Amino acid sequence: MKKIILLGSTGSIGTQTLDVIDSFAGEWEVLALSANSNIDLLEKQARKYRPLYLAIGNNKLKEELEYRLDDLDIKVLSGDEGLEFLAGELEADLVINSIVGAAGLKPTIAALKAGIKLGLANKESLVIGGEIIERHFSDRVILPIDSEHNAVFQLLDGKEAAEVENIILTASGGPFRNYPLDKLDKVTVEEALKHPNWDMGGKITIDSATMMNKGLEVIEARWLFKQSYDKIKVIIHPESIIHSMVEFVDGSILAEMSLPDMRLPIQYVLTYPERRPSKRERLDLASLGQLNFQEPDYEKFPALRLAYEAGRAGGTMPVVLNGANEIAVAAFLERKIPFTMIPELIEKAMERHDNISRPSLEDIYLVDEWSRKITREVMESVIGY
Fold it and tell me: Are residues 240 and 334 in the same domain?
């Protein structure tokens, strides 16, 4: 039986990963689970899967979780140290990192240091730590879980980097694809959380609405597939049937297609390099009728432009992009700022940053902290609290 460590088990990717594990009954032992603060669901998962270890991101909830699980022989850890221990100190066949945000970098580094195969759904690990990971861990196995990167990974299997003309990442366009630009400042949190195709967590759904999610995926693709930003394109594809495409130097384009269901790329990672049967609904092209594409609107979605700028600048600029975005999205979800202020705050933080080329891991953590601080300060100066 293979052993898996699942970080972020109570989130969207985490719960769907457990669904896939359930479909392969008896093949996987869940060695460890983690959550940030959802101890109710984490307790239920612990009672079902009986892991040896749990980690809770919020240190204040550790004692409560231990109390609830006093009847089980499970070691409860907490904070960054707990996540790093799970990812790097246990003997496992696979670590899946589906933590949301920059908090996912430390366990990613821990798993790579330990040489454990990594299923990566935490795009921020590569957005802010891509240079470090390429410099020190280029020989490690990283299997991307994001549907777009998982698609590209499949399309490039057995291909050489020199054969690639362009990587084409598809984007649904989110809930505001056809929304008038002059009305975006009035959209509500509820409207922004209504993604047309995917069922995701709150932060990533807002990132999809601003198209920052696609911008972060562009930077992630740079590090995963070793291609320049000029060769990483974004195209709007409202149906979310084609998850990504690769154009080769001979002019041919290969596409990976399926219904929008994250359990498919998750299963691919769990069973790689095999392909295993699944009972999930199949794509019926005839009933679909047509597929549509359009260029992204960089005026309506400046976050995508900012991501390309940060990626091309390199160094610690993507760290600022990500940190400022996390603070701005949280403020929007808390109804402190309008939707259109999210990219405005990010741009102001980037303008104030003195970029550091070839950053150390310590540089990344310090700049991440700085970016959050400066974004809060700018926001407070604008909104008054």
Answer: yes
259 CB-side CA count, 13 A: 12
Does 175 sit behind a cis peptide bond, omega within 30 degrees of 0 on the bond before it?
no
Q: Which of 24, 265, 75, 53 is nearest to 155 (CA)?
A: 265
Residues 212 and 103 in one domain: no
| Residue listed under structure tokens 């320049």 | 228
Of 80, 111, 85, nearest to 97 by C-alpha is 111
Buried b (16+ CB within 10 A) or exposed e, 153-164: bbbbeeeeeeeb
User: φ and ψ at 298, to 5 degrees?
Assistant: -75, -20
Q: Residue 84 belongs to what domain range?
A: 2-122
Residue range 67-81, pLDDT digits in tens? 999 999 999 999 999
What is the number of domains present in the chain? 2
Whether the pLDDT of residue 188 is over 60: the answer is yes
Q: How confident is the model over 20-45, as pLDDT tens digits?
A: 999 999 999 999 999 999 999 999 99
Q: 133 lies in a domain?
A: no
Q: Is the pLDDT of residue 202 over 90?
A: no
Residue 143 lies in a domain: no
Structure tokens belonging to residue 282: 């199949």
If asked whether residues 288 and 171 sit together in one domain, one would say yes
The predicted-structure confidence for 97-146, as pLDDT tens digits, reads as follows 999 989 999 999 999 999 999 999 999 999 999 999 999 999 999 999 99
Let me know how long the chain is. Answer: 385
Q: Is 6 helix (H, G, I), strand (E, B) or coil?
A: strand
Identify whether residues 157 and 294 lie together within a single domain.
yes
Query: Does residue 279 fall inside a structural domain?
Result: yes
Task: Compute the distance between CA of residue 12 and CA of residue 37 in angstroms, rounded to an integer.
Answer: 14
329 vs 325: CA distance, rounded Å: 6
**Same domain membership, residue 317 and residue 275:** yes
Q: Which residue has the tokens 């390429």?
A: 134
CATH number for the domain harbouring residue 319: 1.10.1740.10
List beta partners, residue 77: 55
